[in-house]
Amino acid sequence: MYLADLCWQEAGKVLSDPETIVVIPVGSTEQHGCVGPLGTDWMIPDEFCRRISGMDHIVIAPTIPYGVATHHINFPGTIDLGIETMIKVMGAVFESLFRHGARRFVVMNGHGGNDPAIEKAALEIYRRGGLVALIDWWGIAPKLNPAWPTGHGDAQETAAVMAFRPDLIKPEYLLDNVVPAPTKNLKPVHINTVLFEGAPVKIIREIRDTVNTGGFGGLESKMATREWGVAMMDGMTKWIEDFINEYRSVKLPEKDWE
Ligand SMILES: [Zn+2]
């Protein structure tokens, strides 16, 4: 069920039920390589939530469409809350739901840049007696199938969007990546990450200086197929359902941390 569909009297019952898990979809509005829509990072978690919305004792909170997009701000359309604001946004969402009785949360996240802010706010609510699981789907998918490698704004996310909004991927905008190496001994492998003698190190730069399309890390967007996306979204949905059923049995924290 969706929180937004309930009246406050229904919400009072649902949120104070100890069996309830509140799922919070969160993403970002930011550039996603040459063909990924700006909403990629919130649309994918939103779609996972739609697929699991019929599970017992699940309530889906409204999708948070903004996040920490500081690295991406030089691309048109990107909206960046910054990390300090994002900690406050996540903290306020957890705190409000906690006040109404919710204790067990799942954050369905679409954007790696949000992780530090979500984890900070999650620890605060843990110290009050709440519990948060953070699902970063893009890192899970390659464990389900190594043919689904992750990056930013590349084939993995493009394929995922193709599964449910194929109309948003426009082949006429496909570009080849141009990724200049900082030196001949530093091999770029992900946004900001290079390998030196085979080991990863970050050199922090604007993404526009690291890759022309803005998308990098796994396979280029032109490798995405709808078939990949459909199989990955289905596989991930099954994994998420199984995880949530397991998560129900994790003990809530003792409330003596304050
Ligand atoms: Zn993304």
Summarize the structure.
By secondary structure, this protein is α/β, with parallel strands linked by helices. It contains 7 helices and 7 strands, in the order αβαβαβαβααβββα. The chain has 2 domains: about 5-175 and about 225-245, Creatininase (Rossmann fold, 3-Layer(aba) Sandwich), CATH 3.40.50; about 180-210, no CATH class.
Task: Describe what you observe in this structure.
This protein is of the alpha/beta class and 258 residues long. The protein has 7 helices and 7 strands, in the order αβαβαβαβααβββα. It has 2 domains: 3-176 and 223-247, 3-Layer(aba) Sandwich (Rossmann fold), CATH 3.40.50.10310; 178-211, no CATH class. It binds zinc ion.
Overall tally of domains: 2
Spatial arrangement of strands, main beta sheet: 2-1-3-4
Strand portion: 5-15%
Under CATH at level 1, the class of the largest domain stands as Alpha Beta
Write the layout of secondary structure elements.
Blueprint: H1 8-16, E1 21-26, H2 40-52, E2 58-60, H3 83-99, E3 104-109, H4 115-126, E4 131-136, H5 137-144, H6 155-164, E5 186-190, E6 193-196, E7 199-202, H7 226-247
Parallel strand pairs: 1-2, 1-3, 3-4
Antiparallel strand pairs: 5-6, 6-7
Bound molecules: zinc ion.
The site of zinc ion has 7 residues, from helix 2.
